[in-house]
Amino acid sequence: MHIKSALFDVSAPDLKSCPKSALPEFAFIGRSNVGKSSLINMLAERKDLAKVSDTPGKTKLINFFVINDTWTLVDLPGYGYADVGHKQRDEFSRAVSEYLELRRNISWVFALIDSRLPPQKIDLQFIRWLVETGVSYSLVFTKTDKQSATRTEATIALFKKNMAGWPGEFPQIFLSSAKSRDGRAEILGFIEQALAKTNRA
Q: Which homologous superfamily is 6-200 in?
């Protein structure tokens, strides 16, 4: 997929504020500091489409970006903020859960995982929620350039072990690095195939 245009549309604090668009939406979400903004910028080939920050939890709104006038990339607030109050955190969680459960034109969710870390409880809880909610999703293991392929494979194996016995099959996996651009062709290719299926439906 060639990215011809990537334009910011709107930031929404909750579901009712989301744009009234019929374009298929592909959402990206992960624990704070997982490298989500860097991945989004890499996919779109834009340096500052999504704001990159050293402060975890910088994204606090649901951000919509229209790609090629044919689909929407949705940047969801990360989970696991360390620097906001419980009430604010609950509001973020409610906005994200309502979006994922009730947004009609959401096509797929990419759940980002830091490949350098063993399975974190908060990641497993979120993935389990996706499974139980019936949301279509894939796992994207980020920052793979920062360690050997063997260590990344070991992390994936631990996730498979922790998710053994869960309903359904283990989700599709993407390996990515914003620095080396690994995973870009695979993720965009997946989105392109999904769009083609939608157009045929």
A: P-loop containing nucleotide triphosphate hydrolases (3.40.50.300)
